[in-house]
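Researcher: Here's a chain I'd like modeled. Treat it as a single chain, no partners, no ligands.
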Amino acid sequence: MPADVKSALESPVAEPRIIRGNGQVIAPPKVMSPLSGAPVSFRFEEAPVAEVVRTVMGDILKVDYVMHPPLQGTVTLATRNPIPPDQAVFLLESALQANGLALVRDARGTFHAGRADALKNVAGSIRQFSGSNPSIPPGYGAVIIPLQYIGAGEMASILRPMVSPEAIVRVDTVRNLLVMMGTRTQAEGWMDLVNTFDVDLLKGMSVGVFPLKHASVKEVEAALRLVGGGGGAGSPSAAVPGTASASTTPAAAAAAGSVTLGESNPFFGALRIMPIERINSILVVTPRAAYLDEARRWIDRLDKPSDGGSEPQLFIYPVQNGNARHLASVLGGLFGGSGGGAAATANNGIAPGLGSSTGNSFGQTGANNTFGSTSAGTLGNSRTGMASALTSSGSGGGLNSLNNRNSTQGAANQAAATAMLGSIRVVADDLNNSILVWGTRSEFNRVEAALKRLDLPLTQVLIDASIIEVTLNDDLKYGLKWAFSGDAQSGYSGSGSVGSVPAITQGFSYTLKNAAGLTKATLSALADKSLVKMLSNPSLMVLDNHTATISVGDQIPVRTATQTTPNGSAAAIVTNTIQYKDTGVNLAVTPSVTAGNVVAMQIDQTVTDAGSPDTTTEAGGGERPFLQRQISSKVAVRSGESIVLGGLIKNNQTNRKTGVPLLQDIPLIGNLFTENASTGVRTELLVIITPRVVRTDVDIREVSEDLRERLKGLRAIEVEPPVVRGAVDTKVQAAQPAPSVPN
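Model: Modeled as a single isolated chain. Structure tokens:
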């Protein structure tokens, strides 16, 4: 083994090493010297073959020759001008061939003339054709034809239809050469064919590499096999120089997978397609550069997103409107998958019917409402619906409560929601608010179609609330309820139930839906008589199925405990424990919007007033009584319409009788000397809610413009400084319209 080859094999391969050979696969044969001498001329007319051979070879050319009888036939042979001796032998060989005879020159230079079968035992000289020596000596014998580019087997298949069966002696695919037996004339004809086909095919071929964006190479290859079939001149069965036909190397396997278009296709044999799976591309080889454009059109037809690739890949869906974590959990329930890392109610806004929760486990351990095991600050215990369907398995902690959203979140709290939908994997990217889908193109198309229907613009609700305290007397008959009852024929409807008002008295709760402006007109009339006190008039914008809260008021210190510690002869040390109690107006509204713009609302409203200090406990600091008025109700109203919630909070009835002593007690006539007075005062708390559904950007602009116009109107009104009672109530002069009543 050469030293350079041995060192190349033993050294570690860090980069490609090329070891070039000398290209010699056979030893060059002995070259016979051509005949020399002066030009000769001759002329024969119907002369016997033996006489012609004797005259030309012995008398004219002066060379050694042997005749193998029988030599039958006649020959007509003539030259117009003197020709070289080598050319004279060529003419004689052609004349003998016409009579079925051959001329062979052995290794010693002796010529033998006779029939081809009689000359088989004569070992003729080996002649080799090469590009550097295109001419070959005359005579019948073996001709070695080395091939440069085309395979020996392929060249033999081209020559066989045009040569005699015994002309091709050997097809050497290892050395890539042909061994043929024939005359010089035949050999020169064969060489013309060989020179036509033995060219650098790659230099004339056009090559295109087409990366596939959607489909896989296996799918495109299978489709091309349906379009056409293998075989033909471009068949992979053709031998390659220097390679074995039974190669099982990966490159050979890839070559075996190449396809050509079928015979019924106009591009049969003109396109060779080879899949390259490593880079997911198609290699196209064609002898016509224009065919690459046609190949591109074929591949573009096959490489379509709708075809659905069979290889899984990563797809990213940027969420446009909703929450990525919530959408991932919904997909898990929609396709029946399992997930981890997110609660189904991550946005605290599941639609009615999909689930329910009770908020009684803030900060406690959630057992059934998270994907995973223990979680802190969960949103209650999910009981039914989608929330419980998605909590059976997974990893990661639960979602922190809304109250803890402003806390610092570490990497552990950023675990993405994951759902396994069969062979599809869906992950929520919270940081970028995107959905990551790992699957095939067809699987992603199915998930994307669902996401586009779920990822809708968020519905919001503008809630205009007016919290009003109304004082009624007998001048308004029996109260606000009956004042409204007279207008029932105008489209009002109401319902009432007797219930308990916490911390006060038994009361009557009444709900009145108002589609017109009659309620506002009545309240305006009451305000003119100083019978209406506006407690709060908030406007809140809140997402659908989310809770909006507003609190206006003060915190009043309340003594909860007193501790006296003896101090010897000095006065005892008194220690008071103080807690602060919230007072004022608290309103919480949770809207839920239907497709018909009907807004269902859970309303919880509380008004807490602090009374004057108790004189009996004034020495100890004075304890304050608290007056609490509360309404909790579930109502439904169409967008833009108002709904009134009212209740009897306090009712004072005073009967006064004055008269002449003794005379007023006389039966029957005592009333003539008596004055009877009966007065009644009733205080009711009203909550007027007007929801307005906001779905589009145009609706948001309209709402913003209405609020700006309202602020402009407030700046034009001069309002006296408010009088604070119990830290919350604000009175407005009766002569002025209540600012809470919309125009």
